[in-house]
Amino acid sequence: MVTNADAGLRWLARATPDVEEARAAFQRIVVHGHRADAVIGSVRAIFKKNVTTKTEFDINELIWEALALMRTDLRRHRISIEAESNERLPRVSGDQVQLQQVLLNLITNAIDAMAQENGARVLRVRSTVCESDSVMVSVEDTGRGIEPAHIEHIFSPHFTTKFRGMGLGLSICRSIIEEHGGRLRAAPNNLRGAAFQFVLPANSSLPVDHPGEALHSPSGLTRRA
Predict the structure, then answer these.
(1) CB 170 within 8 A of CB 155
(2) Which residue, 39, 122, 130, 184, could crosslink 177 as a Cys pair with Cβ 3.0–4.6 Å?
């Protein structure tokens, strides 16, 4: 939101102000402001045990939206994206705001883990059917990885390996997934880095129907189906 505000002010401060570009920047602030309000309200509902807003949706759409929201940070740190989506996934039911926040947190952690690393920086996000009646989403990075001694504690409240971390992000993520009847785990990536996976119960055994271009990747992202 601050970045868009700065951009809007710069467009207006030009010798010939570009009102259209400024308007677009300020409209993005409105969108992100509403989203921030929804996220805060949704997280508060977790702790207050309120009834959350649950809908049936396609997890692939949630993945593409999360990647689109993080596009600027991914480009800034020169991270390549490999997104593999199973287009025959069954639908899931849940609070989309909460579940997208889980994805955004996992992607943000992956970016932080790779930001200071040399070599290839690759974020891999996959969706697949798990155990025939569940959907699994994996977020894998090529960052510094997880110390074996930290695996058992990484989801504990207030445990963090970040200098300025509060140790609440992954704890909240696990709470959200478990509230949806799923599970969240972490493990070392095959070659380098870390892999986080969450599994959610499918709403039915029927596959998602993708007519035409119902599922598409944001501009600049690599999609593998």
Answers:
(1) yes
(2) 184
